[in-house]
Amino acid sequence: MPCCGLDLFSDEELLSFEQVLRLGKIFAGLGVSSVRFTGGEPLLREDIGELIKAFKNIQGIDQVHLTTNAVLLEQKARVLKIAGLDGVNVSLDTLNAQKFKKFTGSDNLIKVISGIDKAKAEGFNNIKVNSVIMAGQNDDEVCDLVNFFNGRGLIGRFIEFMHITPLWDERLFIPIEDIKKLCEAKYGLFPSEFRSLGPAKYFTLGNGQQIGFIHTHSENCVDCSRLRISPTGKFKICLYEENALALKPLLQEMNDEELALRIQERICVKNSVDYKCFPSGQIFMSQIGG
Fold first, then answer.
1. Mind listing the pLDDT tens digit for each residue in 175-223?
2. Cα 66 to Cα 39: distance, rounded to the nearest angstrom
3. HSE, side-chain direction, 13 A CA sphere, residue 189
4. Domains (ranges, CATH) in the chain?
């Protein structure tokens, strides 16, 4: 999160409930079976429960997940569970209140932890917590974070700092293999059969808990099947893509068949995309999510 914060979109700029649902049905018709509601912050939508419930009823959609900063998770966890949400991912880079305020610009660490605990109490199993590790910032907390994951039965995932953000500083970068070696030396790492739809490579700790490690570049491109739609309707076939397809005006101009064809044209070139051809430093991850 930039220190000056981010500009918020007006309601008119955001996709409406009906537009999101329409796109969900179109993408399901094109073969999409798993959906994740993510950044900005999906829990800011007052209709998020109804939206999840509606997506669970779309033919062809098998799983609906959500990624959140967890500030509102404590008050929304029950709504999400009743709606049928299949899983929750939480972004949490530190357990230190001062660092948390530095990273996020807020004093909401206690709310985040309470939200995680509430989601667990509501019956969400396999909650995943994503932690970006940066040299000289929070690399001294790796073991504290693992102990936090273990103590609450969470699946922790350590992530490399990404070049895509304007906050990029090469001095902060730590290869994920270094974090993995630290965990292996401290806890023991063993092969795991646990799998998810994302890029994480999972291992079992010595106590039986799962933990994941995520590279942020070329290794992910080979297996990436993700398509992204921003809250304002910008469609990306690659996280790094600069010129996204604006779907919001097309929702007004085209019928479902025409729009599906236009979307399919973009999907068909996904496998030929090379992320290295796109400029880095363009996107705050708090804008587009995980």
1. 999 999 999 999 999 999 888 877 889 999 988 899 999 987 655 666 7
2. 9
3. 16
4. 32-225 (3.20.20.70), 226-290 (no CATH)
